[in-house]
Structures are given as structure tokens and as C-alpha cells.
Amino acid sequence: MAEFMNVGKIVNTHGIRGELRIMPLTDFPEVRFAKNAELFLFTPDNHPVLVNVESARLHKNMYILNLKEYGNINEVEKFKGGMAKVLKENLAELEENEYYFHQIVGCSVITDEGETLGTISEILTPGANDVWVVKTQAGKEILLPVIDDVVLDVDVDQQQVKVHLMEGLL
Predict the structure, then answer these.
(1) What are the pLDDT digits (tens) for 66-122?
(2) What share of the chain is helix, strand, coil (3-state, %, to 5)?
(3) Sign of the Cα pseudo-torsion (10, 15, 19, 24, in order)
């Protein structure tokens, strides 16, 4: 069975020519929504349809996609509220020390002193740097800034992250 990764949330239609408004959920929107890019559009009830991008433009932090297969608003209504996805094997290659969110969420977090903090449950992207939400055994949440002074080592194969707790983080 094929595995898919989310690259955008289908927010609405746009105009009457079958365009879709998509909120990007990818670090590579210029690749995912490029001319001739293949996407799988999932309807809200989870039915996938393979489509090809004819054109895309950025408008108010959303991408407006024109698809080769559709030219009418009535044909694309069914996708509203669904997701745009790509096959997992089509993920872009990352630079060294770069990771996909799905590789980080679920990793256990230990300090440089050997103490287990918990598991990364969520990643926030507020601005200058990402913030990892670590859920402790007691159910408390710790917010860790993803900066070199805090994150010492990430081992996605072992699902483990080593961190240094700077003063004031807990």
C-alpha cells in the first residue's frame, strides 16, 4: 500500500475555472506546486485522485492551483476540505542535519546528562526557529527551541534526540 505525505490543505475553490486554494504544509511549495508536478488530491472522505499542476501562484499565503485535468469549479468542489499529498518515495532530499517533521515527532528526548525528558509530540513554527513540544511521562509539556545551543544530536534511525537544557528552559 502506498504511503502519502501531506503537502497542502485544500481550503477552497478559487474563481469559476476550477482553481483550488491550497494552504501549503511543506517546506518546498515551489517544488510541490510547480508546473507539471504530480499531486494526489484527497477528497474529505479520503478518495485520492492523481492530478498534474498546470500553473500555481502565491496569493495571500495560499497557493492558487490550476490543474490540467479540471477547468470548471463544479469539477473541483469535491476536493474542498481535503488534502494535497505526494507519495512518500517522492520526498525531496534534505541537506545534512535537516529533517522532516514526521521524522522528529515521536522521537524520545534525553539530556546531555542522560535524563529522559519525554517524547516530541508536536513541532511549532512561530518564526525565527522551530520549537519542539516534548510531552513528559507526567503529561507536562516542555517547549524546546530548535537552536544549536539546545539540540546537540538528532538520530532519526534510533528515534532519539540529545539536548542541552539551558538555564530557564524548564
Answers:
(1) 999 999 999 999 999 999 999 988 877 777 778 888 889 999 999 999 999 999 999
(2) 10, 45, 45
(3) negative
